[in-house]
Structure formats: C-alpha cells, structure tokens
Amino acid sequence: MTEQRFKVGIVGLQPGRSWAARGHVPALRALPESFEIAGVANTSLESSQAAAAAMGLPKAYANVAEMVSAPEIDIVTVTVKVTHHLEIVKAAIEAGKHVYCEWPLGNGLAEAEKLAAVARAKGVLGVIGTQARVAPEIEYLKKLIADGFVGEVLSTTLIARGGGWGGVIPQKKDNAYLLDKAGGATMLTIPVGHTLAALTDVLGKFADVSSVLSTRRTTALVADTGETLPVSAPDQVLVSGVLTNGAPVSIHYRGGMARDGDGLLWEINGTKGDIRVSGPFGHAQLVPLSLKGARGDQKAFQTLEVPASYRTGFPVEVIPGNIARNYARMAKDLQEGTHTAPSFDDAVALHRVIAAVEEAAETERRTKLT
C-alpha cells in the first residue's frame, strides 16, 4: 500500500528562533514519505513571505483564514501563543482540516473541552504536542514498568527545575508573556504539564490531588532591556496525590535552572526495585533523559540503556526527534484509522488534572478527579 503524503501548513514560523523553526520543520522534513510542508501563515503576508523564503517553503499565506481554506492543505500545525489557540484551531477544524496543536490545547479546561468537542463533531483528527510521552526514554520506561521491573508500583516522587520562572528572562518580546498566569503559559501548564503527560502515560491516572501554587518571585528582570516586570505565574508548584492504582505521588517544581545542570529527578519505587529518571531540567519534552534502575539486593543503581530500536528512523536531536515521533503516530492514525498519537481528548484529560491542581491550591482542599 502506498502511503499518503499529507500537506502541512504551519501557523507561527519565525526562522532561527521560533519553536516551529527549531522543532516542527526539521521533524516534518525527517518524515518525507508522510509529510510535505506546503506553506506558512504568520500575522502578515510580509512575515509569511520572509519565513517561507528563509526556510525554503513553497508558499506564504496572507493570513490564517487563507491557509485553512486552501484546498491543498491537509493538516494545520498551530505553534503560536496559547491565547490564540482557540481561534486558530477552531477555524482550522471548521474548515475540515486535521490539526497538530502545541500544548496547552487551550487557555484553560473550558477552551480545551470546546476544541475537542468541535473536532469530534467535525470528524477531524486533533493531535496535541505532548511529545514527552513519545520520547524514547519514556516509551522504554513504560515497557519496563509494564514488564514488572519494579514490581508493584508503591509510590513515585518527582523534583525538577522549571527554567524560565527563575527571576530573569532573556528577552521581553519572546518571554514576557510567560510571567502572566492569565496567558495560560506558566510553569504549571508547560513543563509540569508536559511531564505530567509522561508520568500518567507510564503510571496511570490521578484519583485525587492536593497542591500549593506560590509566586515567591513577584518580579523578573528582562536581560535584554533591563526592565523589571511583575510576575503573577507561580514559580513554586507542589502537588501531592494518589493514582487510581493507589500509589502516592509527590511533585515539586521550582522556577529557574539547576546550579549543576541536574534539574530533573523522577523516582519510581516498587516492591521489587526502583527506577530513576534524570535530566538537565524539568521540561521532559525537550531534554535528553537518562534511566537508572536497581532490583532486589542491588545497592547501586545501574544505567538502563534504551534499545536502539526506540530511536531508529528519527532525528538524533531531542526536540525534532520527539516531535517527529508524534507526527509519525499522526500519519499512522490518518492512514490506518488507529489511535496512537496524543489526541485532543488526551489533552482534555491533562487539562483536567491541571484544573484540579489549581482548584486544590485555591480551596486548600484535596480535589478528586473523575
């Protein structure tokens, strides 16, 4: 059977600096048998033309409306700020296009539920960019847990540094929006959200949560302008809860970077052994991860090498590699009718966990998830 090649239009491509340029373009070009980048739509035709010329793309669209109505476009990739997701994703779906949307799907649970419902009603595929779930280390970890490496999971603990909420941001233009919790792009929604997607994929769903969200740094220095800006997004995220299998969970994310480059430690404790997942900082979706394990009477943790088969066929670099794995699943689902890529319904489930964390922090009470 000949595989169909899907033509992709990207919304929000800035050569040299945007997430689409760093991740989506090389990911899609690594899968030429399934995808072709057909063009780009930015906030103006001039911006689209500059991006298309710089990235070697065939077409620049004047705006999103022109792109989503173009008959040659099969998939619309949305890589802009969260506050624009609802409008753009909804327009693409209503035009009958499949959508790959970066996480978070919406600015809060209500927007995510609305977009998932529209996608179901229209019969299009919505894929969410929670690519930590498909990282080779996470996929192998999931197999190790399923195969009983640690036995029955007793508990899990995760401590990580969240990066950009540490009191200094490099650029006002690209980073200031992260400081405002109303914008939907916070330490809770981005690094914690991506890592929660991986954690629940490996260990199962939450039954309930309690939490503390605290903004200990109320201002941030902008390195390129010298300005000081107010901060309303939390730089401390503490979550405790219980999974549906009864295992307790403890998570603490701190803003900023680790002093020694060791900024993520996730430990899974079981009746027969333990596994540790580590990385440079808490964005599990975009950093190299390593696995170590110990079983039985072993006193020292041993490196658990991920088999080469988990990486074959994808870019070596972490960011485009993980995004390409997500796109490969999307192609399979469109071609074969399977359900392997993280979907908009998966995004809603993750948004519900985050909403429960926010509610628990606000009410200072444990919140149950249904």
Automatic annotation (TrEMBL):
UniProt keyword terms in alphabetical order: Oxidoreductase
The answer to whether UniProt assigns keyword Oxidoreductase to this entry is yes
Residues in Gal80p-like C-terminal domain copies = 136-279
- Give residue ranges for domain Gfo/Idh/MocA-like oxidoreductase N-terminal: 6-125
State one molecular function term (GO).
oxidoreductase activity
Among PANTHER family, the record links this protein to: BCDNA.GH03377 (PTHR43818)
Entry protein name = Predicted dehydrogenase
Q: Which organism is this entry from?
A: Bradyrhizobium erythrophlei
